[in-house]
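Internal QA ticket QA-208
Title: Verify multi-chain structure generation after dependency bump
Assignee: T.L.

Test input:
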Amino acid sequence: MRKFLAILAAETARAISQITKRGSGSALPGLVAQKVDPAIITKLSDMLPGGVILITGTNGKTTTAKMVAGILEAAGHKVIYNFSGSNLSRGIASFLIQHTNFWGTKMTGDIGLFEVDEATMPEILALVRPKAIVVTNLFRDQLDRYGEVDKTAQIIGKSLALAPEAKIILNADDPLVASLSKYNKNVLYFGIDDDYKTQSKGAIDSRNCISCGAELDFNPRYFGHLGNYTCPKCGVSRPKLDYSLSGLTFSVEDSKATLVTPNGKTDIAIQLPGLYNLYNALSASALADFLGIKGDIVAKTLGTVSAAFGRMEKIALPDGRNIFLMLVKNPTGFTQTIETLTFDEKPKNILIALNDNFADGTDISWIWDAEMEIIQKVAENVIVSGIRAEDMQLRLKYAGYDMGKVTLEDDLAKSLELGIAGLAAGETLYVLPTYTAMLELRRTMSSKGLVKGFME
Amino acid sequence: MNLYGDLGNIITLVRRCEWRGIEAEVVNVKAGDKVDFATADILFMGGGQDSGQKTIADDLVSRGPAIKKEIEEGLPALLVCGGFQLFGHYFQTSEGDKIPGIGVFDAYTVGGEKRLIGNVVVDIAHLASEWQNQFGQASGGATHTTLVGFENHSGQTILQGGTKPFGYVIRGFGNKGDGGYEGAVYKNAFGTYLHGSLLPKNPWFADHLIMCALNRRYGHVDSLIQLDDSIEISAHDAAIERSKTAKTLSI
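Actual output:
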């Protein structure tokens, strides 16, 4: 009865917020429902026959979730997943209520897939009993919001301990993520098994042994602090891989590899560039295999998945010109994106848009840790824009750019016009925005009719 | 230790030397490495995570006397956040652990309840008279007496005795979170909570460190070759403007 009242209250709140047009109404119904029935999330999520899956970590959550959803749907499941990114508990409550029938006796899907912010993990784990939890990686990200990455690992670890029944699927190549097995032993590991080496120096993410503090040996290092590592002092090394990718090949716009699981080998090709997207594909494949989905379904689906909203998007313009949108949000991701642009040597037109709103991270120090130096060999023209355009311009100066090739345009809409105007037929404008800059640029493109509206 | 974009400080010192034909070599010192501080020209130590801080602190304490001797003799040093805290007497964490520092600054740090986060503008005019002719001599001839940066710390650093602050807060929280003073100065050692990175957007201070280094190594050096700092100044000015509108956090 309480559950029903909670749902009724939530639906009323949703109706009111839609009538009064207060916001999108995405979190309010959940908030109201939780007030009426604090156990609403537990009750509704327990009704999903296929259980609940959580995906957390710094980078790749949304793209991985999108891949997993695609695979599960291809395998005949009806997935409900919080794709819009409202991943605080009230958002999840709202979301579950949206996917239940009026009486709250049946869910409209059979499996729940939630992308969960690292800091929200304890709150969610106190409420749901997940079947599996994927931890993608732990990088420095928006430190001003979460404090420090070691603390983030602790928060996630303690929440994993609350889910003894869940299968924990960890990135073995990330020493910090791999060390989370000390909180929950029910673990599967995924990682890369290839001799690919990054050009970046990766000086910023900690490469010290979690156990003894000595500097780890990497053979090789794939990017940031991810790689096949051993500690020369205490002998800790990368755990044995249950799932791996080998034979990696890349271009600026797509990538290929061979997926190895306990159930055999499958070649995969994804329409997304960069090693980080192969990591996303790998974690999605590991989860799919754990859920009993066959390799051919996984491979076929991965071949068609596009990146999550605004992460990476190709937008066609007239005359064979294109905009290639690549979200940047932290130094390691930025360095990786730049490295991706060097997979071929064609001179490129680039627009970098740096904002410092809350969702971008208000501290822009991180641009000094992004290895902007790498892009030099492929950067033909660079436009800098956004609230902190001047900082990005300065970063490029100290990276040794020819400042004659750099244009400053504070206004995002104008910077996009300028970038498009500079393209010859057949050329691509590579747009590297932070989160809120991406939203604004996408709005501009939407008003010009270049892309569809906000929701896919 | 490097966190919060401290790499920008190193890049800035190296570039500004290179652009003037001064050779610069960066030596990364890790715990346990052998170092002769007498051969160093500028010492830099940045922030780290609390866990990194404990490992580094033991190593630093063992080097304390050697570092202090050079600082007494004029070695320029820039110590940001965690580095600043460890150059005081001690850092008492919010869990009650007391991490000893090397006491270059007559100051101590206590872990606060809240983390202070946001853009900072500080006034360093009180140092101007001592910095003499190199102070504020970025291009354009204008004298610059402000520094811009970004702070993110829970530790509160209290200065004792006659210890001089580095700057006075125009916007931001500062050492104690009360909008009072920021950082500390002793001889040519500068401690601060300013990230940003600090040096790229405050080239006059970067140049002051370089001047101190040249003076220490070669005797009296009057001035540095002037560089075109228009891009640096536009970033500095934009950061001041942004500090007027951006929100700060105390969480």
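Spot checks passed. The longest strand of chain A covers residues 243-250.
Status: verified.
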